[in-house]
Amino acid sequence: MGQQKKIPDIVIKRLPIYYRFLTNLHQMGISRVSSSDLGKKMGITSSQVRQDFFNFGSFGLQGYGYDVEQLRQEIGNILGLNKQRTMIIIGAGHLGQALARHSAFEKEGYSVIGVFDINPHLVGTKIRDIEIMHVNRISQFCKENKVDIAVITVPRTYAKDVADLVISLGIKGIWNFTSVKLSVPDNVAVENIHLSDSLMTLGYYVKLLQEKEEEEKAKEKEE
Amino acid sequence: MGQQKKIPDIVIKRLPIYYRFLTNLHQMGISRVSSSDLGKKMGITSSQVRQDFFNFGSFGLQGYGYDVEQLRQEIGNILGLNKQRTMIIIGAGHLGQALARHSAFEKEGYSVIGVFDINPHLVGTKIRDIEIMHVNRISQFCKENKVDIAVITVPRTYAKDVADLVISLGIKGIWNFTSVKLSVPDNVAVENIHLSDSLMTLGYYVKLLQEKEEEEKAKEKEE
DNA sequence: GATTATATGTTAAAGTTTTCACAGAATTGA
DNA sequence: TCAATTCTGTGAAAACTTTAACATATAATC
Asked: Which among A27, A109, B60, B77 is least buried, having the fewest CB atoms inside 10 angstroms?
């Protein structure tokens, strides 16, 4: 059957946020939540919460709300968190290593099973219990192991080549930390973490706020 | 006068992307570009490009297009890249250290001037030429130095306290790498990098694609 | 057990963002 | 120099997203 109707990307982007808040509630021992409670915590309207869930079916009970643990599981299933997934990291620079050491992903079912670099000083050393291998072994590695996601943390000049390589090896997901826009066939998914973009956006708002504050100070002085 | 009319956030989010592509063009020695060329490179329509710029005025020339370097400067000015900005990093774990070592930000005018942690093994050691200081010195540091942005890379349990502290010290921008939703007064800007959220979103699409592929394979076999 | 309060699922309206369409300015080429 | 082409700026339409509204189901209370 497949997907009945295309779920908007923007809704999918919110699922992990719901999941995060539901996990918090669960850990706090709260077993029941209404769309308006959840919305308030997340900073969105209750309508949006209900509308979002409505895309997938009905998880709640009128007059009661949602069972936290059940809803969390439902969203987890939609996101595929019930299944273990594997990642390789290509580029063992500062960022690549930090990600390899970041244990939080494992809890959600994502485990790093290989790290690759071209730097001969790095190749052969270990991160946690994973040996860093030379990039020219990626191909073989992917034939011997099922790899779901490739994390690209190489310098921008190599990004395209690395992406093309992992796509040719049948990897369906790319987590791109370079500032390069990757053009991929539509049977491959890309999620970008554009750090510089995010920082510049923040810079814009900071500028705005600082200017506003100065204006206000100037005004106060006038009076 | 201040902002005439509120520019949509979604437009602001695209400005760094324009900036990035214009920098690329400039580096490739291309001095002229049309909205449709730029749009094609970026994967958006020419209409959107023109509509976005229209929010700020008119930067182009009919029948010609845009001067790459001039447009780049205009967008840089809107983003405030003409001014130097300072950052402190709170939390010198793997991610915090990776960010401190990430030299790319400096090119865009963002420089890390302080790194803080509570781990006594880290305090006193150096990242590049910056000494890691104990968190209890943040307050003094911010009085002696103008800090524009605080980068929060502490464990999630400390996130709120750190945010409250830096807000109380007058910092107007928070770059939040924790999975905590920070509630801040509206004279403070927050940009979030939610790595887990991004990874889960990617996981959803990978699941979808893998399922689709399996379906197709099964179909092929049938025939 | 009946009544009141609560909160979902769902449709419709409002608001936002993207795309379309085109007049007219500037360039290009003959 | 003139005609043809290009391409912006801009208003309007279309598409998408969020919010509002409400019938109805369930829980809580008396």
From this structure: A27
Does one domain contain both B128 and B187? Answer: yes
Q: Decide if B214 is inside a domain.
A: no
Strand D, nucleotides covered by protein (CB < 7 Å):
5-12, 16-21, 23-28
Tokens of B62: 């009919």
B2 pLDDT more than 70 = no
Q: Is the pTM for the entire model greater than 0.90?
A: yes
**B198 within some domain:** no
Of B59, B79, B99, the residue at which a domain comes to its end is: B79
Whether A115 and A88 have beta carbons less than 8 Å apart is answered as: yes
Residue B25: give the domain boundaries: 9-79
Beta bridge mates, B149 = B87, B173
pLDDT of residue B6: 87
- Which phi and psi angles does B168 have, rounded to 5°? -65, -25
Protein CA B43 to sugar C1' C19 (Å): 14
SS3 A33: strand
Give pLDDT tens digits for A199-209.
Answer: 999 999 999 99
